[in-house]
Amino acid sequence: MTVDVGRFGIWRRSWDVTTEEVALVEELGFGALWIGGSPPADLELAERLLGATGSLVVATGIVNMWASDPTELARSYHRIAARYPGRFLLGVGIGHREHTQEYRSPYDTIVSYLDTLDAEGVPREHVVLAALGPKVLKLSAERTAGAHPYLTTPEHTRRAREILGDGVLLAPEHKVLLETDPARAREIGRPAVRDPYLSLSNYVSNLKRLGYTDADVSDGGSDRLVDALALHGDAAQIAAGLREHLDAGADHVAVQVLGDRPLEDYRTLAGELVH
Predict the structure, then answer these.
(1) What is the CA angle 98-104-110, rounded to 5?
(2) Per-residue model confidence (pLDDT) at position 173
(3) What is the distance between the alpha carbons of residues 48 and 38, in angstroms, rounded to a whole number?
């Protein structure tokens, strides 16, 4: 059985998350805290956050396969799983071609990495794979508990569920901004969409598969694109947008709150999402 992450969780970069924050996430009733920003193979941050909570699931979103040795990662997984059984989900994924000097076949590298995790006894049902395109989505269903897509829309979720089939975890990330002024929301949301994602071929290719045009992904992203990828509005509007992922077949949504008041915004969103 895979780890139970609930319906909604919080996605946070490793260098921003604190033990105070993760304790609040648990108190508010979110199911999981996802650690982004390519946490290293030692998984020390995940262990520290688990120690600051009593029942919250901590997940990595994701450990970069290029930067982290799979054997070391497996040792770290076993250390944490023994201490906090059922509360850790290992998210792994490939890096970006633009950010890697020595870039072998991405697909073959993913397969080899998962082979090593298997050989080191990491249960497949405790691993999820960063996946956007059809080929890696299929692999996530075959070799892991499921997929953790990043920078996606409910339409991507619908297509992903068709590829994954039933009984496979689908946990997309989505950015949100509690701001009702569209101009102000785009001012904050556009950099979070643009940097670095609109300069990375895998994200751009995925957005084009979803129907976005060259114009949408140019010059920092069109208003249409930014509005879709960084939901803005009041708490009820944002909650409705996030539930579109669930309606499209997601099991869980990892919510990345933008802006400079995350703790306040977690409280506000919890009233719509988990109560």
Answers:
(1) 100
(2) 98
(3) 16
Q: Are 34 and 9 spatial neighbours (Cβ–Cβ below 8 Å)?
A: yes
**What is the distance between the alpha carbons of residues 275 and 271, in angstroms, rounded to a whole number?**
6
Of the candidates 67, 66, 64, 63, the one whose C-alpha atom is nearest the C-alpha of residue 46 is 63
Query: What is the number of helices (H) and of strands (E) in the chain?
Result: 11, 11
Phi, psi of 5 (to 5 degrees): -100, 0
The pLDDT tens digits for 121-151 are: 999 999 999 999 999 999 999 999 999 999 9
8-174+236-273 under CATH 3.20.20.30, yes or no:
yes
Which distant-in-sequence residues (6+ apart) come within 8 Å of 3 by Cβ? 57, 59, 86, 87, 88, 89, 125, 126, 145
**What pLDDT, on the 0 to 100 scale, is given for residue 98?**
46
Are 128 and 90 a contacting pair, CB within 8 Å? yes
Q: In which residue are the tokens 């999820």 written?
A: 128
- Segment (H or E) for 63: strand 63-64
For residues 98 and 25, give the distance between their C-alpha atoms in angstroms, rounded to a whole number.
34
H-state helical runs in the chain: 19-28, 44-51, 70-83, 106-119, 134-143, 154-164, 182-194, 201-209, 223-229, 235-247, 262-273
What residue spans define the domains of the chain? 8-174+236-273
